[in-house]
Amino acid sequence: xxxxxxxxxxxxxxxxxxxxxxxxxxxxxxxxxxxxxxxxxxxxxxxxxxxxxxxxxxxxxxxxxxxxxxxxxxxxxxxxxxxxxxxxxxxxxxxxxxxxxxxxxxxxxxxxxxxxxxxxx
Length: 121
What we know:
Elements (H helix, E strand, L loop, with lengths): L2 H23 L5 H19 L1 H11 L4 H47 L9
Helix pairs in contact: 1-2, 3-4
C-alpha cells in the first residue's frame, strides 16, 4: 500500500471522526448513526496506520492487491449502511401512512360531529 493511500486513509478517517463529533455536539446526529460512523473511522484508521494487516487480510482472502481489498471492503460497508437506511425509510413510510389515515379520520369526525364507523363488509 502506498504512503499516499495510507495518508489519505488516516486523514480521511480523522476528518470523518471530527465531523461526527461536530454533528453530535450540535445535536444533529442520532446516536446509532454516530456509532456506525465512528466504527468506519476506526476501520479506515486501522487500514491506514497498519498496512501490513491489510496485506495479510487481502492475501488471506485472495485479493490481488491490498487497494482492491480496501475499496471492496469500504463499498461493502456502505452497502450495508444503505440497506439499513432503506429498512428505516420503509418503516417510517408505514408510520407516515398510518398517521395520515388517523388524521383523515379525525378530520372526518370533526367535520361531521360524529365518529367514523368502519363497516365489516
